[in-house]
Amino acid sequence: MSLFSFVKEAGEKLIDLLTPGNADASEQLKEHVAKVGLGNPNIQATVEGDKVTVTGEVASQEEKEKILLALGNVAGVATVDDQITVTGPVAQAARFVTVKKGDTLSAIAKAACGDANQYQKIFEANKPMLSHPDKIYPGQVLRIPH
């Protein structure tokens, strides 16, 4: 599997998530995945320092990538160790980009896809974590589909 890096200082703040000895960290992460709109997948997440290790099974590569992003785009998380198994057909993995200060989805689409009008494709690929194309922030990691 693989290790994904994130900007530790960026992301949604989940109170007490990374407090050493937090016995509820795994449940808090599963609740966060459900809250961003990814349902209740068959995953388990453990926290060790600023690293989240996630295991379990999901039906698609897209679902896996969205879960990894939901877990990594949390303030205090620097890495996510992906130990998720995809049970359905494995599609080509998407690329990931980190939002920089001043970025817009159009600018990211221009750089990643060669066409600023592809911003909607990126927005759709990051739903339900993104609620609006203008609501991105520096340090956030986004999926760029093929």
Describe the structure concisely for a colleague.
With 146 residues, the chain is α+β, with helices and mostly antiparallel strands.
Q: Which properties best describe this structure?
A:
alpha+beta; Histidine-containing Protein, Chain: A; Membrane-bound Lytic Murein Transglycosylase D, Chain A; 2 domains; two-stranded antiparallel ribbon; 4 helices
Helix and strand arrangement:
Blueprint: E1 2-5, H1 25-38, E2 42-48, E3 51-58, H2 61-72, E4 79-86, E5 95-98, H3 105-113, H4 119-125, E6 141-144
Parallel strand pairs: 3-4
Antiparallel strand pairs: 1-4, 2-3, 5-6
Helix pairs in contact: 1-2, 3-4
What does this structure look like?
It is built from 4 helices and 6 strands; from the N terminus they run βαββαββααβ. With 146 residues, the chain is of the alpha+beta class. The protein has 2 domains: 85 residues, 2-Layer Sandwich (Histidine-containing Protein, Chain: A); 50 residues, LysM domain (Membrane-bound Lytic Murein Transglycosylase D, Chain A), CATH 3.10.350.10. It has a 4-stranded mixed sheet. A two-stranded antiparallel sheet has the order 5-6. A hairpin with a 2-residue loop joins strand 2 and strand 3. Helix 1 crosses helix 2. It starts with a strand and ends with a strand.
